[in-house]
Structure formats: C-alpha cells, structure tokens
UniProtKB/TrEMBL annotation:
Keywords: DNA-binding. This is XRE family transcriptional regulator. InterPro entries: Cro/C1-type_HTH, Lambda_DNA-bd_dom_sf. It comes from Brochothrix thermosphacta. One of its GO terms (molecular function) is DNA binding. The lineage of its organism: Bacteria, Bacillati, Bacillota, Bacilli, Bacillales.
Length: 70
C-alpha cells in the first residue's frame, strides 16, 4: 500500500492543506484518507491516483497475489 502521507512527503514535502487545494477538497478529508484510504469515494481515488501517478490498487493496498486469488 502506498500511503498518501508518504506520497505527499515525496512530493516536495507537500502539506495536507496544499494537497487539498490541488484536489479541490478540504484538509480534513486528506487527513481522513491518510488514516483510512477506504474512506475515499471512487472520484477521489481517481484524483489522488492521477495526481501522484500511482494506481488505485496501490492506494488501496491490493497486491498482485491478491488479484490472482480474487
């Protein structure tokens, strides 16, 4: 799983507020998503994935082994 906080840190140590502004949301949402990525709706998952150039699977912690078993 790729943590949003880790992604922010890699991205010029971006703050939650800065990311919220980029994604058109509020800082409280970023905080909640960092604690529980499953709390994001599909629209926001896509926004975060595109912004950081990662897959939705990475954000949700789905790995290749789990995909095969599903």
């Amino acid at each position: 799983m790729v943590n949003i906080a880790e992604l922010r840190a890699r991205h010029s140590k971006m703050t939650q507020s800065e990311l919220a502004k980029e994604l058109g949301t509020e800082q409280a949402n970023i905080s909640r998503w960092e604690q529980n990525p499953l709390s994001m709706n599909s629209k926001n998952l896509i926004k975060v994935a595109i912004y950081f150039n990662v897959s939705i699977d990475e954000l949700l912690g789905v790995n290749e082994k789990e995909k095969v078993l599903a």
